[in-house]
Amino acid sequence: MTKKEVGHNFLARLGKKRLRPGGITATNWLIEQGQFSKDSHVLEVACNMCTTSIELVQTYGCSIEGVDRDPKALEKERANIHEAGLDELVHVQQANAMKLPFPDDSFDIIINEAKIKAIKEYLRVLKPGGRLLTHDVSFTEERMGEQLASLRQTINANVEPLHVADWQKLFEEQGFSSVKLNYGKMTLMSIPGMIKDEGFWGTLRITYRGLRKENRQ
To answer: Methyltransferase domain: which residues (predicted)?
Structure first.
């Protein structure tokens, strides 16, 4: 039996560059909250293709450390960083979000998906007054057990979405202040969302690759 591929790895292999559930719309909203500058020292957790890190450095001139658990993803990230000519400002390494290889109070900003069990670790490496820009799946209605089970099966990942109100409570209980939330539809796999994230021709390429025999499982 062949092991099923995790959803975001599959999409990255097809050529998708935007892998956060809310796509570029959600990522842009997060960045607007970050108050980035050239002096910002930033950590991106699970940086995937390093698309966001590269764009942040190109826009603000900040320095970024990235961590990812997947060695294959790291190879692609380093290639993308080098191609962009940003080797001196963006560094990536293999690490687990649960045990980040950085001292306390290291970063002004962290951007990532919200791994519930890693929130204390994010707080540890943030400087006092630092900002956590986090993006994850949530829901607004009650009794969504069947829908959440279907989501886990579709993306082949044990996601742990919370109700919007529970996300707010969680961050406040962990010691964060001034928690600001925004939510919308999950656009990762919708055609309009993909076109907005990847462009028309990029969406066609991803769809074509996804329809190949070896990818239709």
So the answer is: 37-172
